[in-house]
Amino acid sequence: MSAPRVLVHVCCAPCAIVPVRALMAEGFAVTALFYNPNIHPVAEYARRRDAMAAYAKTLGLPLIVKDKGYDPAAWFRRVSFREDNRCFHCLHMRLEETSFIARAGGFSHFTSTLLYSRRQKHETIAAIGRDLGGEEMKSRFLYRDFRAGWAEGIEESKRLKMYRQDYCGCLFSDLERRKELLQG
Hints:
Mean pLDDT: 92
CATH architecture: 3-Layer(aba) Sandwich
Shape: globular
Function: Catalyzes the conversion of epoxyqueuosine (oQ) to queuosine (Q), which is a hypermodified base found in the wobble positions of tRNA(Asp), tRNA(Asn), tRNA(His) and tRNA(Tyr).
Strand order of the largest sheet: 3-2-1-4-5
Binding site for [4Fe-4S] cluster: 11-12, 87, 90
CATH class: Alpha Beta
Radius of gyration: 16 Å
Family: Belongs to the QueH family.
GO molecular function: 4 iron, 4 sulfur cluster binding; epoxyqueuosine reductase activity; metal ion binding
EC number: 1.17.99.6
CATH superfamily: HUPs
């Protein structure tokens, strides 16, 4: 009997370390998906994509990169006039694409490395995933709380000298992170 296949949406290489290892240890055949139209600017997107590709190569981890899906305009349309609830719409967009690819690719499950971060809206991610991968779906959402490995993932990413970003990815999170630059 072959291992169950899981498609893991990855936001970046540092956040992939703990979830990928944990899922492999559980016996899943893991494939990573890099789909992040929220990341701004494009140079930041490329840095995160390339870091994930390098990490996947070291693990022999299959990686699907959706560069053609990098459409910041579509992302901005999804979150425009919803800035106060933008994370929900951003998360939904990325998990929706992940669930679609998982079903089309014959994966039994899908999940996200977003469940690793202590800074993400964990309950929202889980609820969206459950809605997209309901009982009748060919690919079910695989819920795991990877936050217990937060410190381990940070240390390992530093040891591996991975590119480590300092904001979630979107223009809004970058602005929130760097507000002090506007003081003065």
